[in-house]
Amino acid sequence: MFAEVIQGLFIPFAGTVLGSAGVFFMKRKLNISLQRTLTGFAAGVMTAASIWSLLLPSIEQSESLGKWSFVPAVIGFWIGILFLLLLDKVIPHLHQGSDEPEGPHTKLKKTTMLILAVTLHNIPEGMAVGVVFAGCMTGESTITIAGALALSFGIAIQNFPEGAIISMPLKAEGMKKSKAFAYGVLSGAVEPIAAVLTLLAAGFVVPLLPYLLSFAAGAMVYVVVEELIPEMSAGKHSNVGTVLFAAGFTVMMALDVALG
Question: What is the DSSP letter of 49?
C-alpha cells in the first residue's frame, strides 16, 4: 500500500505539470470561453470531491454518534471555510482576469500574485488528498485505497487545465516558454507538500479524521464559491461554464462511486 500512497500523493501534481506543459504546444493564449470551460469543469470536480470523497466519509466515520453523526462534519467544514477566509485576507494574491489584488497591500509583481492565487487554492486540494490517504493507512477508515486514488485522479483532471491557465497567459505576456512552464509547475508544488504534511499529522490524530476530512471539504468549497464560480460566470454566454461544471461534477462523482 505504501507505494500506492506515494503515487496517489503526487498524481494531482502530475496533472498540473502536464497542463503547464501546454505552453510548449499551444501558440495562442487561452480565450475567455475556453478559460470559462476549464474553470467550470474544475469547479465541478472539486464540488463533487468535497461531497463524495470528504463529507460523506466524514459522516460515515462518525456513525457511532447516531443522529449526531453530522456534528464533526459541520464543525470541520466551518473550520475549513474560516481557514481559507483567513488565508485570503493575509496572503496577497490576484485572480485571473482581475486587476485588483486581494489581501494586504504589497509591491509584488502581477505574475507573483497570480501564482499565489492558484497556490492558495491548491493547499486544500493537497490537504484533501493527504487526509484521505491517511484514512486508508489507519485501517479504521471507511475509505478504500481505490476511493483515495479516485480523488487523486479527479483532482489531477482539474489540475490539468489549471496548469494551462497559469502558464499560457504568462507566455502571452512575453515570458519565455520555459519560465512560464516553471511558474505553472511551481503553483502546483504546494499540493504534494500539503498532502505529505497532512498525511504525517493525520497519522497521529486518528480520532480527528472526520474533522480533517470535512475541514478539507470546507476549504475546497470556499475556493469553488469564492473564486472558480465567479470566474466561470463572468461576462456574457457564461452557460458554457455551467455546463462544464455539471460535466466535472459528474466525472468526479462517477470516479468516486465506481472506484470507492
Answer: I
